[in-house]
Prior knowledge:
By secondary structure, this protein is mainly β. The chain has one helix spanning 33-39; strands at residues 6-10, 17-21, 26-30, 44-50, 54-56, 62-65, 70-74, 81-86, 92-96, 110-112.
Amino acid sequence: MDRTARTRGGCLCGAxxxxxxxxxxxxxxxxxxxxxxxxxxxxxxFAQFAARDVRFGRTRPKYFRSSxxxxxxxxxxxxxxxxxxxxxxxGKIWLAVGSIDDPSKLRPRAHIFTKSxxxxxxxxxxxxxxxxxxxx
Length: 136
């Protein structure tokens, strides 16, 4: 992994900024209902980083416990989606690709929670698809 790479991003209004060291371990599209509700989109794309490698600026995200297993970070001022993390795995954080300053080099590797995918979403890629979480 290239530890010198930096991923920078933030919310819509700019109040919350972050920097992540290294390249993401994975990038994926999530079709779960909670991701749709949190982002207002048909699905969400997140990039996984080690939590120790992500630094937030002076203003930190507010976290909302969206389920028994996850909490989601967002900006208190504009409501912009920033991240999610699994409660049982605090060593990882997934940053919302839409909040990254230059997401052009990030490529999703899979679709997850496709059992919840909206029927009108037609995927033209050949990425692996998982009805729930992929096997680890």
